[in-house]
Amino acid sequence: MTTTSDPTTGRTGAGSATIIEVSHVTKSFVSPDGTPLPVLDDISLDLREGEIVALLGRSGSGKSTLLRCIAGLISPTEGDISYRGETLNGANPGVAMVFQSFALLPWLTVQQNVELGLEALGVGTGERRQRAERAIDAIGLDGFESAYPKELSGGMRQRVGFARALVVEPDALLMDEPFSALDVLTAQNLRAELLRLWREKDFPTKAMLIVTHNIEEAVILADRIFVLGANPGRIRTEIDCTFPQPRDRHDESFQALVDEIYGLMTGRDTRPPAHIWTVASPGEGSPTDTPLPQASVGGMSGLLEILVAHGGKVDLPQLAHELTFEVDDLLPLVDAAQVLGLAVVDDADLQITDEGRIFVAADILESKQIFALEARERAPLVRAICRALGATKDGNLGEGFFLDLLRRGFSEEEARQQLKIAVDWGRYGELFDFDANTGQLTLDHHHGSDGQ
Questions:
Q1: Are residues 303 and 174 in the same domain?
Q2: Is residue 181's pLDDT more than 70?
Q3: Structurally, how many domains does the chain consist of?
Q4: CATH code (residue 425)
Q5: pLDDT in tens, 92-132
Q6: What is the pTM of this model?
Q7: Which residue, 118, 246, 103, 279, is CA-closest to 178?
Q8: What is the pLDDT of residues 269-286, one digit of tens each?
Q9: Is 276 inside any structural domain?
Q10: Contact 383/377 with Cβ under 8 angstroms?
Q11: What's the Cα-to-Cα distance from 355 to each of 38, 295, 340, rounded to whole Å?
Q12: What residues make up the domain containing 402?
């Protein structure tokens, strides 16, 4: 490769020196029963001087876990991560992080929060104060040095987070969903400010790596985008973004790339691993290899009603923009509609099925019956619960039975979340009930039997 330069930023991209290299990284955690839970699978990528790279993926893609491995906060189960050619065996000395939750110490002022990293590096008091003041001024918080976090808005607190990371002049800035806790306008403004600083010659870092689930955010910011599949996370594709900065989200090329990525993130993974999310067909899939999407029946029904109002077919990026949703808000609803056979996705287009039209047009009792039938046949965990309850003498089983089975493929939190979704779906379809006091699930013999 030869070194290239972007005339709009003056920064180099392909062919520049590699700062961070991730080589065949796999990461697994251990479930309570000792079963390994894979989070990352065979991840390889690099971060070079002069570029912004985005790790884009849905919930369950292991984006944040990968970022923490790169920061040296956790170690990979297999594979290597190197900084400037040296394999990491602890904290990465060349990076600083910006977190979604701001992570400010509430008892310290803005100035003191920004100085924390410098103090940890042993920088003297006078130099520490001067460097912190310059960072605070650069990020647009001049005059707020003595303010406490509680006095600041969310956007201002995140600016403090950026100043605290940049003041140590890291080789690479790592960002974990840094704008997702902010309102749309504040996030848009802060992204623009970050790009403005990035284009300045004295910007104190040589590369940036951002984790996001927001497709437009990735396309606005990044020179390269790695799209991750989920459960476990693996790289599905790498995309070069060659548009000059600043980028116009209304440009046809911009929208075409957004559409392409939507298609990737709503389609099936070509190499389905253990418990990756895929759209189940009747009679296929198990509760662990086909998780239930985190969507309520009401949310999915609302999506279908909007789809009908748009003539039965809609471009997903356009719909997300109209509804001011982000990808993690919209896609679980899309998944729920798909798994129940009420809608299908073709590239970036969502289209209602005939059954979906009947569901939307039906009265409440008819829609419940349709939902019950489709959930019992197509949603593996709902089907498994109905069958297990039907196999008992009295149609009763404790939640512990199902949680024990789910823990073989999910973490404790994920297992409980899966069961909660299944209970909500089962209750809506009157397939089974749940007593929170006793932890008992009870079959509704009118709707819950599958005839077996």
A1: no
A2: yes
A3: 2
A4: 1.10.10
A5: 999 999 888 778 888 999 999 999 888 888 888 888 899 98
A6: 0.75
A7: 103
A8: 443 333 333 344 444 567
A9: no
A10: yes
A11: 36, 19, 9
A12: 297-443
